[in-house]
Amino acid sequence: MAGVVMALLVQSDMATPVIADLGTKEQIDEFLVPAMRGEKVAALGVSEPAAGSDVAGIKTVAKRDGDDYIINGSKTFITNGTQCDFITLLVKTNPEAGAHGCSFLLVPAKTKGLGVSKKLVKIGNHSSDTAELYFDDVRVPRRYLLGEENMGFMYLMQNFQSERLIASTSACASGKYALERTIAFGKDRIVMGKPIIKREVWQHKFVDHATMVEAGQALSYKAVDAITTRRTSSRPRSRWTR
Ligand SMILES: Cc1cc2nc3c(=O)[nH]c(=O)nc-3n(C[C@H](O)[C@H](O)[C@H](O)COP(=O)(O)OP(=O)(O)OC[C@H]3O[C@@H](n4cnc5c(N)ncnc54)[C@H](O)[C@@H]3O)c2cc1C
After folding, report:
1. Residue-range definition of the domain harbouring residue 165
2. Among residues 149, 176, 198, which one ends one of the domains?
């Protein structure tokens, strides 16, 4: 179940909101509209073998060449990577400038030089594919740049606000579901004449877990409240959807 949620959320809440926020009319028509219709699968390409949490450390480079960019590098852990139609890709356009040298490009998956180097085998989430991708002189037109050049890190961090909140609310829901199933098992399972949930040592553990899930949920809801209040007042919206 978590794998299906992961695949769909990458499409709806991770790879595409930045297109809705910043896309030109042509980018919205070519990428966002078919993605929302379910006709194109989207992936978000940020993580690299040596840059996960440290997003500003990415090494995939896009060099300007006339009216095009030429991309070289690799990405890893890319959800939907083996089956996507396009990638919302974070690249370095100014490798010396750290966080201020990143940009977002929209890259059709069939572009020459782009391929899947490995489909990753995971211990769970099997209904969601995860891939390593390579970029070998991948040429895309400049009109596929999202927003302003070298502003990609800021756009990504803004997108992370809701993306990470979705992860936290779904983690709380999974925790709650696991606890409910465990309590049901504890009531059913009779050991030495009593259901195990009646054993004091287990009751302490259940109470500790229930407290953590409740606290996590309360904190997530508080953050959701804060972000929705701020977003309705100040989030920049696309010129095309306003
Ligand atoms: C199933 C799955 C799907 C994914 N899908 C995508 C996707 O679609 N697109 C994409 O771009 N990425 C994706 N990712 C990658 C994910 O975003 C990264 O795994 C994540 O950013 C962490 O990077 P890392 O694995 O390199 O860990 P690292 O950055 O190496 O971190 C390792 C550990 O160190 C801790 N750590 C890191 N920095 C610090 C610090 N400064 N202080 C203290 N602790 C620190 C981390 O919390 C972590 O516990 C996916 C990952 C998984 C597992």
Report:
1. 155-234
2. 149
pTM across the whole model? 0.88
pLDDT score at 79: 97
Summarised one tens digit per residue, pLDDT across range 178-201 is 999 999 999 999 999 999 999 999
Q: What is the pLDDT of residue 240?
A: 47
Q: What pLDDT was estimated at residue 161?
A: 87
Q: Please name the residue that has the structure tokens 């990458």.
A: 10
Which atom of ligand 1 is nearest the CA belonging to 122?
1
How far are the Cα atoms of 22, 102, 115, 155, 166 from residue 147, in angstroms, in the given order? Answer: 5, 12, 25, 9, 24
Q: Please check whether residue 106 is in contact with residue 19, taking contact to mean a CB–CB distance below 8 angstroms.
A: yes
| Ligand 1, CB cutoff 6 Å, lining residues | 10, 44-47, 52-54, 77-79, 122, 125, 130
The C-alpha atoms of residue 185 and residue 183 are separated, in whole angstroms, by 5
The answer to whether residues 125 and 186 belong to one domain is: no
Q: Which of 76, 227, 220 is nearest to 90 (CA)?
A: 76
CA dist 201 and 135 (Å) reads: 55
